[in-house]
Amino acid sequence: MDASSPLRALPRDADSPAPEPGADADLALARAVIGGDLRASERFFRDHVDDLYAFVHYRAGTDPHGVEDLVQDVFLTALDRLEVYDGRVRLAGWLRGIAKNKLHAFRRRRRPSNLGDLLEDADGEIDAILARVQKEPLPEHVLSAKETRELVGAALSSLPTDYSTALSAKYLEDRSVAEIGERLGRTTKATESLLTRARTAFGEVLELLAKRRGGRP
Questions:
Q1: CA–CA separation, 152 vs 71, rounded Å?
Q2: At what angle do helices 188-213 and 149-157 cross, to 10 degrees?
Q3: What are the Cα distances from residue 185, in Å, to 25, 43, 180?
Q4: Which of the four, 9, 83, 177, 211, has the lowest number of CB atoms within 10 Å?
Q5: pLDDT-derived band of residue 29, with 50, 70 and 90 as boundaries?
Q6: Which sign, positive or negative, has the C-alpha torsion 86, 88, 93, 99?
Q7: Which of the four pLDDT bands, split at 50, 70 and 90, describes residue 14?
Q8: Distance between CA 89 and CA 94 in Å, rounded?
């Protein structure tokens, strides 16, 4: 990719959904990376590598070299295509979309893990859960200590990054709502709402994966 090339963002149609919160900042970061800003490129990698690694790990198996190769391939493809990133969705979701395509090719070359099969088969239902959670006030679920770490990790890796970041900060790092809000750039009220949706989504995705694997939370 020519670092001096201007960003050719796609036009936003009047009927298109509004950009997700934070997407404008992601678009600004993309512009900086394309412009050759080294610090922006470092931030682009640093902000997304952990999320991508977890996302790929639970779908490709536990071979660290294979996972690292796939994650590297995702970043290389993303850098090559960054000029067409239009800021309608968060960069994290855009990168996951690239990762899904890479994983499909990977699965054709190698025998996937059982958990990877489960996650791919459940993708449509997980997307439906997340779409519903954005629109409806559903009863809260809490993180279940009875679940195996593998299944919990798989569920977290299926959530939007803001959800997984908030839940990890709250329940694994014991951060306050104010601290989580500061990390995510949200008000306390917005963070409380985010945590509610995140707990709901996590609970439903975890239950879905547990049922499809043959057990219940």
A1: 21
A2: 120
A3: 11, 16, 8
A4: 211
A5: very high
A6: negative
A7: very low
A8: 7
